[in-house]
């Protein structure tokens, strides 16, 4: 259970006053959300409920009221490291998509981000991390204090302006339309479900994907499976499906009745977000099932009135980034940020590099 703090005035170093309430009142959050034309599904109160239920976090969301009467919400969660003594906070924990500041009217100014950085730096957490909405990235970069660690990221988003017919004709590349048609001619069938019925199918395909990624990375299978179980606990997807209901939709592509690929798409008030994907590469073969999956989801998003289809993060120049660009998704370069009194990230990165090097050496001996 979260404790609600009475609204209290604060003053940032730049001299800009504001009032903060935590956790953010549900009514105020809903009003800010409704006013934001490009709010992500991962910036909603329901999404934060999922994060807390699955990840062992507490609701630490913050409502900011500025001197000029504007309201902004920061979805934020807290996890105890040493109860009552040490804790971490995150706005967009790993595996849960971007969050960051949600401004009334969809506006997030550099001064807003500067206000939040100053407020979070005063939280005395072991670590505070923020992964903002990519569309607000320039404001966060302009406000970043010197002490904040910056990790560059790249998202890709497809505009749905003009409806699906225009997206199909003008934004999908010609070879993408060709591959969609080939998938249809090959008999690929796409199923949709928003009740959770198809989640076991997705989870089976995801398990096969984990094994494929392990082979590609040269990581021991047991290690890869443990890592995947930690990142994607069994209860995660059913919890999201139960809380989000029809706003969480699973798409499964079948070839000759056999499931070969699946995606999970989240539907927000104005933005749909591709959240998870998995496939059986051997079974999918050259069926182009993933092209038909996304074509179907994009058409559904446009029909639902969404103005954008957020396709998530990719490494610049990677095959995944190329795949997304074929649908007309545009790159958005942004960053996540960390505030740490103690350099935990540097120590963790050093350990991770050593483990990776040891795994590569082991692979070389096999």
From TrEMBL:
Lineage top rank: taxon: Bacteria
MF-aspect GO terms: transferase activity
UniProt-listed Pfam families: Acetyltransf_6
Coiled coil, from the record: none
Classification via Gene3D superfamilies: 3.40.630.30
Classification lineage: Bacteria, Bacillati, Actinomycetota, Actinomycetes, Micromonosporales
Keywords noted in UniProt: Transferase
Name of this chain's protein: Acetyltransferase (GNAT) domain-containing protein
BioF2-like acetyltransferase domain boundaries: 170-313
């Amino acid at each position: 259970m979260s404790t609600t703090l009475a609204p209290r005035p604060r003053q940032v170093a730049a001299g800009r006053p504001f009032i903060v309430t935590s956790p953010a009142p549900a009514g105020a959050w809903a009003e800010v959300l409704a006013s934001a034309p490009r709010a992500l599904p991962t910036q909603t109160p329901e999404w934060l409920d999922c994060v807390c239920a699955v990840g062992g976090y507490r609701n630490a969301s913050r409502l900011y009221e500025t001197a000029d009467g504007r309201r902004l919400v920061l979805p934020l969660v807290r996890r105890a490291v040493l109860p009552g003594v040490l804790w971490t906070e995150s706005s967009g924990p790993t595996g849960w998509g971007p969050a960051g500041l949600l401004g009334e009217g969809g506006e997030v100014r550099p001064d807003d981000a500067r206000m939040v950085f100053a407020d979070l730096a005063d939280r005395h957490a072991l670590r505070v991390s923020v992964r903002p909405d990519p569309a607000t990235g320039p404001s966060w970069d302009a406000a970043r204090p010197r002490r904040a660690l910056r990790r560059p990221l790249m998202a890709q988003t497809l505009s749905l302006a003009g409806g699906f017919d225009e997206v199909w004709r003008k934004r999908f590349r010609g070879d993408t339309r060709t591959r969609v048609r080939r998938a249809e001619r090959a008999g690929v069938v796409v199923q949709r479900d928003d009740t959770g019925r198809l989640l076991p199918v997705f989870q089976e395909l995801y398990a096969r994907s984990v094994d494929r990624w392990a082979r590609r990375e040269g990581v021991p299978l047991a290690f890869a499976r443990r890592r995947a179980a930690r990142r994607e606990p069994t209860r995660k997807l059913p919890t999201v499906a139960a809380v989000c209901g029809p706003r969480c939709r699973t798409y499964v592509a079948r070839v000759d009745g056999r499931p070969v690929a699946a995606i999970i798409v989240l539907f927000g008030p104005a933005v749909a977000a591709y959240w998870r994907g998995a496939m059986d590469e051997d079974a999918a073969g050259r069926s182009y099932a993933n092209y038909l999956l996304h074509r179907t989801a994009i058409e559904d998003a446009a029909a639902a009135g969404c103005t954008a289809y957020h396709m998530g993060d990719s490494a610049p120049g990677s095959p995944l980034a190329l795949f997304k660009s074929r649908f007309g998704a545009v790159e958005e370069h942004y960053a996540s940020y960390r505030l740490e009194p103690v350099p935990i990230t540097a120590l963790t990165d050093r350990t991770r590099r050593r483990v990776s090097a040891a795994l590569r050496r082991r692979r070389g001996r096999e």
